[in-house]
Amino acid sequence: MVGGSMGAAKQTSIHGQWSSKWVFVLAATGSAVGLGNIWKFPYITGENGGGAFVLVYLLCIVAIGLPIMMAEIMLGRHGRQSPINTMRLLAEKAKAHPAWQYLGWMGVLAGFLILSYYSVIAGWALSYVMKSISGAFVAASAADVEDIFSQLTGSPVKLLFWHSLFILMTMAVVARGVRGGLEKAVRFLMPALFAILLVLVGYAMTTGEYFFQGITFLFAPDFSRLTGAGVLIAMGHAFFTLSLGMGAIMVYGSYMPQNASITATSLAIVGADTVVALLAGMAIFPIVFANGLAPGAGPGLIFQTLPVAFGQMPGGIFFASLFFLLLVFAAWTSAISLIEPAVAWLVENHGMSRLRASVWAGLVTWLVGLGTVFSFNLASDWTLFGKTFFDLLDFLTANIMLPLGGLLIAVFCGWVFFAGESVAELATRPWLYSSWRFLLRYISPAAVVVVFLQAIGVLG
User: At 293, is the pLDDT very low, low, confident or very high (cuts 50, 70, 90)?
Assistant: First the structure.
C-alpha cells in the first residue's frame, strides 16, 4: 500500500512539543549519544583493528542508520503519540493489519528493559566519579584498579545504591514534562558533554607522538586486520548507537515542530552522534598508547584499563573525574529517552499525571534492575542458556528486539505507509527522497537481516 494518502488531518501531541528544531536535535542526539559511543565504540574499534573498522562503521551509518532514523522520526511526528498508539493509529489509517501496533509495544518494552540494566552500568560511572575525585586511582596498579572494580560489582549494597540514585535522577527529569524536564536537561547536558569531550581531546593532543599514533590507529584503514565478523559488528553498532527500534526516537519525533526538516535534523543527529564516537576514540587511544596499554582490552577498557592511565598522568584526578562525569552525562541523556515512551503511554492510556506515570515507570524499572544488580554478585551463578540475568537482557534487547524493531520500521515505512504522506512529511528534493526510499525498502532491511541472523547464530 504505497499509493494514495492518509488525509490532511494532523495529529497534535498532548505532551507538548520541543520549542525549536535545534532543541529536538539536541534531545535526539542525547538519546543516541550514550555509553555505546564512549564505552563501547572505542573498545570494539580496538578489538577490530581500528581504521578499516571505522570506515565500514561510517558507511553503515549512512546506508542503515540514517534512512531508518528518518523513517522513525517521520512515523513519530505523523502519529504525535506514544509509539504504541502511533503505530495503532497509522496502521488503521493505512488499512494495514492491526498487529503493526505490536511494533510500538516492542519498542517501549525494549527501552524499558534496556534502562533496567543501563541504570546499573551508569551507576558504575557515578561511583567512579566519586572514586576519581577522592584520588582512588592515583598511582594505582592494574591489580589495584581490578580490585576496586571487583569490590564495586561484588557488593549488592553498593550497586543497589548507585542504581537507585541513577533511576531517581532520570525520573526527576522525565516527571517534569517535555519543556520543563526533557528540554531543560538536554539544553544543559549536551553542551556540557561536548565541552568535556573536547577538553579530554585537548589533553590527548599533549601526548605528542601518542596522539598521532591514536589518530593513525583510528583513521588509517588496514583492511588486512578487518574480518567478516568485524564487518558485522560495525554494521550492528552503527544501528544500535543511534537508539533506533526502541521507541525513543519515535516518541521524540512526536514532539518535533511540524516546520522542522526531518532530513536536515536526521543528518545533524547522525553527524553529532558519529562525531562524539570519533572524539571519544581520539581522547582515549592516545592515553592508552601513552601508557603502554592494549587498545583491544575489551569491555574493561573504560572501567579497568583507563583508570590505570589516569592514575599515572599529571592532573589525573581532574581528568579521571571529568571523563567519568562525561560517561554519566551521556548515560543520563539516553536514559530519559529510554523511559519516555512508557511514561507517555501511561499518561495517554491511563489518564495519569506525568509525575504519577514517572513514579510507576521508575519503580518497575528499578525492580527489574535488581536482577542485573544481583547477577554480578548474589545471583552470579544463576544462568539460563549459559547467560546471567544481565547477559540475557543485553542479548535479548540489543541482538533481537532492536534489529527486529528497525527492520519492521523500514518495512512499514517503505512498503505500508502511503508514499504521498512520506513525500509530504520529508518535503525534500525528489532525488533525495528517491534515494532514501530505495535505501529504506531494500538496502537497510537486507543489512539488518544480516545483522539479525549473525546475532542469533545463523551466520558465522
Answer: confident
**Cβ within 8 Å of residue 46, ≥6 positions away:** 285, 288, 294, 295, 296, 297, 301
By the 8 A CB rule, do 225 and 52 touch? yes
User: Does residue 119 contact residue 365 with C-beta atoms inside 8 Å?
Assistant: yes
What are the residue boundaries of the structural domains of the chain, listed by start? 21-455
Supply φ then ψ for residue 435, to 5 degrees: -65, -45
* CA dist., res. 96 & res. 102, Å (int): 13
Cβ neighbours, 10 Å, residue 11:
15
pLDDT digits (tens, 9 = 90+) for 392-438: 998 888 878 888 899 999 999 999 988 888 888 888 889 999 999 99
Cell 519515535 -> residue? 250
What is the b/e burial string over 134-156, where b = at least 16 CB atoms within 10 angstroms of the residue's CB? eebbeebeeebbbebbeebbeeb
Cell of 150: 571487583
Query: Cα(79)–Cα(85) distance, rounded to whole angstroms?
Result: 8
The C-alpha atoms of residue 413 and residue 452 are separated, in whole angstroms, by 19
Residue 337 · residue 100 · CB < 8 Å: no
- For residue 243, give the 3-state DSSP assignment: coil
End-to-end CA distance of the chain: 36
Phi-psi region of 50 (alpha: psi -120 to 50; beta: other; left: phi over 0): left
Q: Count Cα neighbours of 174 within 13 Å in the Cβ-side half-sphere.
A: 32
Q: Between the CA atoms of 274, 79, 401 and 338, what dihedral angle is there, to the nearest 10 degrees?
A: 60
pTM listed for this prediction:
0.89
What is 21-455's CATH topology? Hydantoin permease (1.10.4160)
Q: What values do phi and psi take at 242, rounded to 5? A: -90, 5
1 burial (CB, 10 Å; 0-12 / 13-18 / 19+) is exposed
